[in-house]
């Protein structure tokens, strides 16, 4: 048990961030903010203040106050989160630089003379207007996606799935008779697929959704078990990729959670040292709810984090 | 950024260029001819697009579909220049919008093309390109 988790809530004077150690190789950190809980105008100005001009401009270009707020919180969250890890003693969220990889995936541009050995921190963010999240790993690619549980889908679920999902996944969804349950399983599946594509970092077209199947080990062929039926410890989420045999399913591990009773969150991370056929212990996940500069609360093991599948 | 070509100037797709707020947009470069043979008055600010900009009907249909998908208020100003991102479309919205466009126009959009759509105009241009085939 990590020491800082015993003290659930930290209060700080403004502009301070609790420093924290990088997650161990088998561990993932997840930080999230709920925009509705950030009401202070001066705090929002503080966030605006740590952004470089181009990021500030992007935030202000968003059409609508809610969108501007969640865009601002997304940038503030990623900067303050990474700053907490004080890589090479750098602790100022303002001084971080970001760039995009070849396929458009954001990454930190570390400012060191010796660029041969960039720090092993990896991150990925996802946001809706009602929740913003940032996942952090060490030495492992990561992709995350969050969606509102009650998000409405404008199209017929099965038409959408037939167009974009794999055959196996369509069968899985088609077997669900209750439309509400079907919609929620669809959203869970969507977040898992998004998280995988984001972890790969090749962009939406780099791994078209139709070319891989995400399934839950333990589900009978053609049958259906909702994720609620699966015991989190006994089951596993796996990916089968048709297009890229080099992209082995054993390379990736997934977690699926319900956050703050309102959102599904999927996390996909690279697995290391996975021997073929060896059953790997699920990774450890630590979750914080935060209002950067103001308050952090470790919510792992509380009602705010319901693990549906995949991790301890 | 706007791109310029002497060969095709489309006015029809961008009636909003003449609005006050567009003129002040720093992204639009102004063209003015001065010197011999031309009067010294400045030409109005124009947006030029490379040949084959989509018809206004197509752009308007895209706007309609986008507004519906994102549940935007009727008075929200959406134009060809609007980017999906700034309107608040996330990846699932974008995919739903593309699917809506496929159904409306009877086309099929590949992932590579879908990924390159940033603005309403991009979507309209892509639709017309696919319809030409």
* Beta-strand percent range of chain B: under 5%
The fourth-level CATH homologous superfamily of the largest domain in chain B is ACP-like
Shape of chain A: globular
Q: Oligomeric status of the shown chains?
A: heterodimer
Fold blueprint:
The complex is a heterodimer of chains A (312) and B (133).
Chain A: E1 9-11, E2 27-33, H1 41-49, H2 53-61, H3 65-84, E3 98-100, E4 106-108, E5 121-128, E6 131-138, E7 142-148, H4 157-164, H5 167-174, H6 179-200, E8 212-217, E9 236-241, E10 252-259, E11 263-270, E12 284-291, E13 295-298, E14 305-309
Parallel strand pairs in A: 2-12
Antiparallel strand pairs in A: 1-13, 2-6, 3-4, 5-6, 7-11, 8-9, 10-11, 10-14, 12-13
Chain B: H1 20-23, H2 56-69, H3 84-87, H4 91-105, H5 111-115, H6 120-132
Helix pairs in contact in B: 2-4, 2-6
